[in-house]
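Before the break, one more example. Copy the sequence into your notebook; we will annotate it together after we see the structure.
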Amino acid sequence: MLAFGLTCYLGYWQQGRAAEKRSLQAEYAQRSSLAPISLRAETREAGLRYRIATARGVWQADRQIYVDNKFDGERVGYHVITPLKISGTDVHVLVNRGWIARSAAYPVAPSASVTAAETEVSGSLTLPSARFIELGAQTVEGNVWQNLTVERYQAVTGLNVLPYVLLAGDSLPPLRPVVEQPDAGAAKHVEYMLTWYSLAATVTLLWLFTNIHVQKPPMPAADSRLP
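Here is what the structure looks like once it is written out:
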């Protein structure tokens, strides 16, 4: 009874989590359909992930970094992250300008130059993943990084940056745009829900099998008159 109750409770909990994630998925989709926002120095509020945004400013080419081990299909390369100094401010937004393949000079990063003129960039706001594994202490080697977080970038470069990364919608060759589809992860909780409910059903069947016995009809008594 305890096992049945526990597995049913866990299945119900995961069912609720899946509903929450579906609601979040709908919110993400709704955000991406809103009118674009213009990034300013004050654009630091929460809840802007997947919003379409534009930023005008000047590229800071000397602070450009390459995040290694990024895939485009089966090809491995880098995400090119370039800070854009927002016009009229001392605040920067990190722009993921796109994916570029490794060159024959690897581990030296390939060239991904930018213009010195003022530029307007449009794209989708995202947040760098906080979940990653680093295999050594050398996580930053020059302009090649294993992983990116806004906090690490600020600490290394000293730049004042917004808490979001702008995924550039248009990238010039050899760069390829990086597209991030909103996924709140509802499917994972549905899988967990089905697992727990399946365990509840299994526990019930095992209990029935071990506790319900089919009564066999009694054997007829032997006739003493038979030789």
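The longest helix spans residues 2-32. The mean pLDDT is 84. Try to locate both features in your own notes.
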